[in-house]
UniProtKB/TrEMBL annotation:
Annotated signal peptide: 1-19
Name under which the protein is recorded: Uncharacterized protein
UniProt keywords, alphabetically: Leucine-rich repeat, Membrane, Repeat, Signal, Transmembrane, Transmembrane helix
Species name: Chironomus riparius
Pfam families: LRR_5, LRR_8
Annotated transmembrane regions: 564-585
Length: 619
C-alpha cells in the first residue's frame, strides 16, 4: 500500500507540474542591424500568459550556436507575474530584454541569475511595487535600466549593488517617497537618472555623492521641499538639472558646472546661480532678486510670472539671446536696461506695467539683432515708433492690450521694420473703420495680423475677430497721408499743391470737400467705363450667337451629306447581293446538270421491287 501511495503522489506531482508548464516560442525572428551592419537576431514572444505558479520553457532550435545569435528578446502583449528567468540561460548572449506592459508584479535576483551579458533591461508600465536587496546584482554588464510607470513604493538599500557599469537609470512615474543616502553608492558610471513624477519630499546631501559622472538629473514633479546641504556640489560634470513643480523655497548649486537649470513652479523668492549656467528656466515662482555671481555666459533667461521689479543687474548679461520678463512688476525701463545685450533676439515684456514714458530714444538702440518683441498689455497709449529705428531685423511685434487708437501702419515696413512679417494688435481701442483700413494695408504689405483663437471676438463689434469701437465719424490720418505723398500722388488733388506750399489750405473741411468732389468724378468715370464694358459684353454675346448659328448650319449640312452617303452604301450592298445570288444560282445549275441521274423508265423510278425485277425491265 505504501508503494502505491508513493506512486500516486509522484504521478500527481508530475501531473501538476506539467499542467502548469507553459511553453514559450519566438513568434517572430528579425535580423538586427545598425548602420547596415548585422549584429544579431531579435526574438519576439507574443500573447503568453502565466501567473505566480507558472513554469516557463523556451522552445528553440535546441542549437546552442543558433541561440547565441539571439541578441534581443521582446515580450509583446503578454501577461506574467514575473519575468521568465529561463530566457537568460537559453540565450546566453542576450543583450536586450523588453517586457513592457506585461502586468509583472514581482522581480527578484533569481529572475536575472544568468543575465551577466545583458546590457539593457526595459520593464515599463508594469505593476512592480518593490525593488528588493541586490535584485540586479547578477547583471554585471548592464548599462540601461528602465522601470518607469510602475507602482514602486519601496527601494531597499543596495538594490543597485554590484552594477557598476550602469549609465542610465529611469524610475520616473512611480510612487517613491524616500531614497536611502547609500542607494546609488556603487553607480560610479551613472550619467543619466530620472526620478521625476514620484512623491519624494527630501533629497539627502549624500544621495548622489558617489555618482560623480552624473550629467543629467531629473527630479521634477515631486513634493520636494528640502534639499539638504550642497547635494549637487560634488557633481562637477552635471550639465542639466530639473527641479520643476516642487515645493522648494531655496536651492544651492554650489560650484557645479550646470549649464541648464529648470526650476519652474516652486516657491523661490531668491536665486543664486552658478558661473557656468547658460539657460535659466524659472517661471511661476516668486523670485524678486537674482544673484548672477559674475556669470556672463548665460544665453537664455525665462522668468515669466515672478516678482522681479529691478533689472539693473541684468545689464551685465552681454551674451543673452532670449529674455522673458513677462508678468513681472518692472514698471520702469532705463536706457541702459538692454543697452549691452547686442545679441538679444527675443524680448518679452508682456504685462510688466511699463508706460509710454519708459520707452525713450535709446531703449532699443543697440539691439540690432532683435527679431521678436512683445509689449502686450502694458500702459502704452501712444507709441513713438521712431525709437525702434535700430530694429531692422524685427519680424514679430505684439502690442495687444495697450488702449492704442492709432499707429503708423502704412509705414511699418517701409520706415521702421523692413522684415516685419507678423503683428498682434488685439484688445486696443481701434475705431472700426480705421481698423478695417489698417488690416487691409497690413495684408497688402504681407504682414500677418495674428490673433489667438481664444481671443477672437464674436459677440462685439469686430473686424476679423479683433474688437473695435464703432463711431459715426471716420478715423482719418490726414496729416500722415498727406505728409508722405510725392508730387505724382498730389496730381489727384485739386490745385496740385504741395503741403509745404504757403497757399496750401490747412482747412480740413475744404480739403475733404475737394476729395469728395474728386471721388464723384472718379465714380462718374467708373460708370462710363462700366457702360463701355457692358457694350463690349453685348457685342461679344452677338458674336457668340453668330458663331453658334454658323455651327448649327454646318452641323445640318454635315448630317445631310452623311445621309446621302449612307443611301449609296445601302444601294451598293443590295446590288452586290443580287450579283452574288445570280452567280451562286448559275453555279448550282451547272453542278446539277453535270451530276444528273437518268432512270430507264417511269416504272423503274416508281418500283419498289427487287434488283432482279429491275434487271428484267432493262432486258
Amino acid at each position: 500500500m505504501r508503494v502505491e501511495l508513493i506512486i500516486v503522489i509522484i504521478i500527481g506531482t508530475l501531473k501538476s507540474f506539467w499542467c502548469d508548464l507553459t511553453e514559450l516560442k519566438c513568434d517572430e525572428i528579425k535580423a538586427l542591424s545598425y548602420y547596415e551592419r548585422y549584429y544579431g537576431i531579435k526574438c519576439t514572444i507574443s500573447d503568453a500568459v502565466g501567473d505566480s505558479s507558472s513554469t516557463f520553457v523556451i522552445r528553440t532550435a535546441n542549437n546552442y550556436e543558433y541561440n547565441k545569435l539571439i541578441q534581443e528578446v521582446e515580450f509583446s502583449t503578454c501577461k506574467f507575474y514575473d519575468i521568465p528567468k529561463d530566457i537568460f540561460p537559453t540565450f546566453p548572449y542576450l543583450r536586450k530584454a523588453q517586457a513592457n506592459n506585461c502586468g509583472i508584479e514581482d522581480i527578484t535576483k533569481y529572475n536575472f541569475q544568468y543575465a551577466s551579458e545583458l546590457l539593457e533591461l526595459r520593464m515599463r508600465s508594469n505593476k512592480i511595487k518593490k525593488l528588493p536587496h541586490s535584485v540586479f546584482s547578477q547583471m554585471t554588464s548592464i548599462i540601461t535600466i528602465d522601470l518607469s510607470a510602475n507602482q514602486i513604493e519601496e527601494i531597499q538599500n543596495e538594490a543597485f549593488a554590484g552594477i557598476t557599469k550602469l549609465q542610465t537609470l529611469t524610475l520616473s512615474d512611480n510612487r517613491i517617497v524616500k531614497l536611502d543616502e547609500n542607494l546609488f553608492r556603487d553607480l560610479s558610471s551613472l550619467m543619466y537618472i530620472r526620478l521625476d513624477s514620484n512623491k519624494l519630499q527630501v533629497i539627502d546631501e549624500k544621495l548622489f555623492a558617489s555618482a560623480l559622472n552624473l550629467t543629467e538629473i531629473r527630479l521634477d514633479s515631486n513634493e520636494i521641499a528640502i534639499i539638504n546641504g550642497d547635494a549637487f556640489g560634488a557633481l562637477k560634470n552635471l550639465k542639466f538639472l530639473n527641479l520643476g513643480n516642487n515645493r522648494l523655497l531655496n536651492v544651492r548649486l554650489g560650484e557645479t558646472k550646470i549649464e541648464r537649470l529648470f526650476i519652474p513652479y516652486n516657491k523661490l523668492t531668491h536665486l543664486d546661480i552658478n558661473k557656468n549656467l547658460k539657460l535659466l528656466y524659472a517661471p511661476y515662482n516668486d523670485i524678486a532678486t537674482i544673484n548672477f555671481n559674475g556669470n556672463t555666459e548665460i544665453v537664455e533667461i525665462k522668468l515669466r510670472q515672478n516678482s522681479v521689479s529691478d533689472i539693473s543687474n541684468f545689464t551685465a548679461q552681454t551674451k543673452v539671446e532670449v529674455l522673458d520678463l513677462s508678468y513681472n512688476p518692472i514698471n520702469t525701463l532705463n536706457i541702459s536696461s538692454f543697452s549691452r545685450m547686442s545679441d538679444l533676439v527675443k524680448l518679452n515684456l508682456e504685462y510688466t506695467n511699463i508706460t509710454s514714458a519708459s520707452l525713450t530714444f535709446g531703449t532699443f538702440a543697440h539691439n540690432f539683432n532683435l527679431s521678436q518683441l512683445d509689449l502686450s498689455y502694458n500702459q502704452l497709449r501712444k507709441i513713438d515708433f521712431q525709437i525702434f529705428t535700430a530694429l531692422n531685423h524685427l519680424t514679430h511685434l505684439k502690442i495687444d492690450g495697450n488702449n492704442l487708437t492709432d499707429i503708423p501702419y502704412e509705414q511699418l515696413k517701409s520706415h521702421y521694420f523692413p522684415k516685419l512679417s507678423l503683428i498682434s494688435i488685439n484688445d486696443n481701442d481701434w475705431n472700426c473703420t480705421y481698423l478695417s483700413s489698417m488690416i487691409k494695408s497690413l495684408k497688402l504689405n504681407n504682414i500677418i495680423v495674428f490673433i489667438f483663437s481664444k481671443m477672437r471676438v464674436y459677440d462685439l463689434n469686430n473686424v476679423d475677430g479683433i474688437r473695435c469701437v464703432p463711431n459715426n465719424t471716420q478715423h482719418i490720418h490726414w496729416d500722415t497721408a498727406i505728409e508722405h505723398l510725392d508730387d505724382q500722388d498730389l496730381a489727384v488733388l485739386p490745385g496740385k499743391k504741395s503741403p509745404k506750399d504757403p497757399s496750401f489750405s490747412g482747412d480740413l473741411t475744404s480739403n475733404l470737400t475737394r476729395i469728395w468732389n474728386r471721388i464723384l468724378e472718379i465714380e462718374s468715370a467708373v460708370m462710363r467705363i462700366d457702360d463701355t464694358l457692358q457694350f463690349n459684353k453685348g457685342l461679344s454675346a452677338f458674336q457668340e450667337a453668330l458663331t453658334s448659328n454658323n455651327n448649327e448650319e454646318r452641323d445640318i449640312l454635315v448630317q445631310s451629306e452623311v445621309g446621302f452617303i449612307k443611301t449609296i452604301l445601302i444601294f451598293m450592298c443590295f446590288l452586290i447581293s443580287i450579283i452574288v445570288f445570280v452567280v451562286v444560282a448559275k453555279s448550282a445549275r451547272e453542278y446539277i446538270m453535270n451530276h444528273r441521274i437518268y432512270f430507264p423508265s417511269d416504272n423503274l423510278r416508281r418500283s419498289t421491287t427487287t434488283i432482279q425485277t429491275a434487271m428484267e425491265h432493262v432486258m
